Amino acid sequence: MEGNNEKLALKLLIDKSSNKVLFGEGGKDVVDFIFSLLSLPLGAVTKLLAKDSMVGSIGKVYQSLCELNETYILSNEKKSSLLNPQLACTSNANTNFLLSPATHEDKRFYMCSNTDHHYDYGNCCAYVCEVKGVTCLCCNNKMNKEAQFLYPKSDGSAVANCSEGKGYVKGVVTYSVMDDLTVAPMSTISSITLLDKFQIKDLGSLEEKTVSVGFEEVIK
């Protein structure tokens, strides 16, 4: 799978005396990406990994499905849904650039056009589909009216438009990123605490370097 050309800026604090990266500092985009790794379907992770990097038998499962003749598959669509899984249709779906753009576009759903009228077509509202123009099971009319997707909120309610913005965290601060991907909000006090943790006595030995993180860097 080829990723896109999107790059994230990550600021590194390096101890020159030991040539060691102490920690990284990233903005909302970096942290949104890290947290979005939790939403990746297993099939997508398996496809992204190099063959020799696959852990356990999951790589064998993926390869078996790839090589299985279409004679034994119910439909190519079902096979593709496993080999090229999509992220759920949410406001956060575009925070992970490991998936190609086509795999995380918001889906469109359609309902019967008779729901626009004041006739007794109540049962028509019970059905939605992903393909425009499908025949309604209730009235045989075309399902070509686009349904409005509601974005879930943490309190259990929903909104028609995601006014909170995309992603997972707020952009009001920067965040520290450790080599084990531990993430925490940055502050003056937390920075001092981290320097003390690494037993840094000479601040002159510290160097700041900004690096770009993209598809190739992430999958290595």
Can you offer a commentary on this structure?
The protein is an alpha+beta fold. It has six helices and eleven strands. The chain has a five-stranded antiparallel beta sheet with strand order 10-9-2-1-11. The radius of gyration is 24 Å and the shape is elongated. The protein starts with 7 loop residues before the first strand and ends with a helix. The model has no long low-confidence stretch (mean pLDDT 79). It holds the Pfam family DUF674. InterPro entries: DUF674.
SSE pattern, N- to C-terminal: EEHHHHEEEEEEEEHEH
Structural class: alpha+beta
The neighbouring-strand order within the major sheet is 10-9-2-1-11
Largest sheet: 5 strands, antiparallel
Summary keywords:
220 residues, alpha+beta, 5-stranded antiparallel β-sheet, 6 helices, 19% strand, DUF674
Q: What is the compact description of this entry?
A:
The protein is α+β, with helices and mostly antiparallel strands and 220 residues long. It is built from six helices and eleven strands.
Layout of secondary structure:
Blueprint: E1 8-15, E2 20-26, H1 28-36, H2 42-48, H3 58-67, H4 76-83, E3 110-111, E4 134-135, E5 142-143, E6 145-146, E7 151-152, E8 158-159, E9 175-177, E10 183-185, H5 188-197, E11 206-213, H6 215-219
Antiparallel strand pairs: 1-2, 1-11, 2-9, 3-6, 4-5, 7-8, 9-10
